[in-house]
Every structure is written in C-alpha cells, then in structure tokens.
Write a structure and sequence with these properties.
The protein has 255 residues and is an alpha/beta fold. It is built from twelve helices and seven strands. The protein is globular and about 50 Å long. The chain starts with 6 loop residues before the first helix and ends with a strand.
C-alpha cells in the first residue's frame, strides 16, 4: 500500500507552505483578465460572488469592492489564513473564506450571482463535476468566468506543455484546450457565451522558485526545453534562460 499523498494532499502540500510566494507573485497579482472579472461582478449590483480555488486571493481582492459578499474558497487552509489576513490589511469587510474541494461545494443551490476561477482549474481532479457544482450553486442566469492556462489543442504542443507543468508541480492535473472547456461547460449545463485566448510570459527562475521545484527537476525542465523540437520551441517562445509563453483562456458562461 503506497503512502504517497492523494491528489488533494499534494495540492495542500504544494500550495500551503507557499502562500506568501503566490501573494507576492506578479503573474498572479496582475493580468488583463482582472478587468473581465470585475466587469462580471459590476454588471450585477449586490452580487454574491464565489472565488473557486482562490489561492492567495487576488481575484477576491479585486472584486470585493464591487460585490455585496465574496466567498474565497480553497483546498489549502494556509492560503485561506493568508487571504483573511490580507483582506483585513486592505480594509475589506465583505470577504469570507471557506475550505474545501471544488468537486463538492458546501453551498445550497442557487446561492451565488457570480462564480469566478483564475489559475486553479488545472489542479482540479474532476473538472466536469466541479463545473456541475458551479452551475448548481449559481442562480438562474448567473455568470461563471473561468481563467486558466490552456492547452493549444495540438498533440505535439499539448504533450510538451503537460510534461513541463507536472515536472515543475506534482499537483498539476491538466491544462485543457478551449474546445475541451467548452464541451465540459456545456455538459455541466452552462451556456457558453464566449472564449478569449491571450498569452502569458513566464520567467523561468521565478516560475520554479514560486513552487519550490527541487533542483534535479529544474535541471530536467531545462534539458526538456533545450532538446525540444523547433515547432515546440517556436510556439512556446522558449528563451535561452528557459523563460517561455503559454496560452491563457478566459471562458464566459451563464447558468
């Protein structure tokens, strides 16, 4: 019988001790998609908002001034402790935290006007079930906006991306393509409204330091990049220092 941690255990072990690193991460604290998330909340005065896989709470801090209430929801208790502390420092009084898995939300049906998720979904064990839960807790006509690193949807490029991600972070499950997210959302009963794809540049050193990737795996990552074929190197814009670019999907859907 293996004594290795479960996926949920790996997520907690990976992210709990690194809460501060994610709070201070420029990749997580900044991004053009924040405007879309704020717009989703601002269009619904008095909205009750659920931030799924909130991490260090950047989405919650952005939308709280526009909402009646925000629930920051995450699997790692250390992340939630940080979110509560940071919210107090920012003077945010309408933000609460709750711990749990996205596949089993402890909320009654139709409790939220808006469900948001940013850079969390590639850790979800069962995205179909998670989206079905998001649909369940949304009010009729409610808004769901999901932001995540996306697979290019091409087998060669997808294989490279998934391998790169899991070498860096053992709790990684999958970066899904835009087509896969559209199918998952529709199957969960959500009405897909639109999808937007942008690019995100990842500086290699801070990318691995944020996750405290062990040095042997950092070396494997660099070797993996250095020996990639030209099609992969060109698509991901791999630089001499290992920095690279990925696609980021923003998906809008309605209940």
């Amino acid at each position: 019988m293996s004594d290795a941690p479960s996926l949920y255990g790996q997520v907690r072990e990976s992210f709990g001790p690194r809460a501060a690193a994610y709070l201070n991460s420029a990749v997580h604290a900044q991004g053009p998609e924040f405007a879309a998330l704020r717009a989703a909340v601002q269009s619904r005065p008095g909205a009750r908002v659920l931030d799924l896989g909130c991490g260090a709470g950047h989405v919650s801090y952005q939308v709280a001034p526009l909402a009646a209430e925000v629930i920051a929801y995450d699997l790692a208790p250390e992340m939630l402790e940080l979110v509560s502390t940071r919210a107090r420092e920012l003077g945010i009084t309408n933000l609460q935290t709750q711990c749990g898995a996205v596949e089993s939300l402890p909320f009654a049906d139709g409790q939220f006007d808006v469900v948001l998720s940013r850079y969390s979904a590639h850790h979800w064990a069962d995205p179909a079930r998670a989206l079905a839960e998001a649909r369940r807790v949304l009010k009729a006509g409610g808004q769901c906006v999901l932001v995540d690193v996306a697979s290019p949807g091409v087998a060669l490029l997808d294989t490279h991306l998934q391998a790169l991600e899991v070498l860096r972070d053992r709790s990684h499950v999958r970066d899904y393509s835009a087509a896969e997210w559209a199918a998952l959302g529709a199957a969960a009963g959500l009405r897909i409204q639109r999808q937007e794809v942008g690019r995100l540049r990842l500086e290699f050193t801070s990318w691995v330091e944020r996750m405290a990737t062990p040095e042997p795996l950092c070396q494997a990552l660099r070797l993996f990049q250095d020996t990639a074929c030209s099609e992969v190197r060109d698509y991901f814009e791999i630089a001499a220092d290992g920095s690279f670019s990925v696609d980021v999907l923003t998906l809008w859907a309605a209940a």
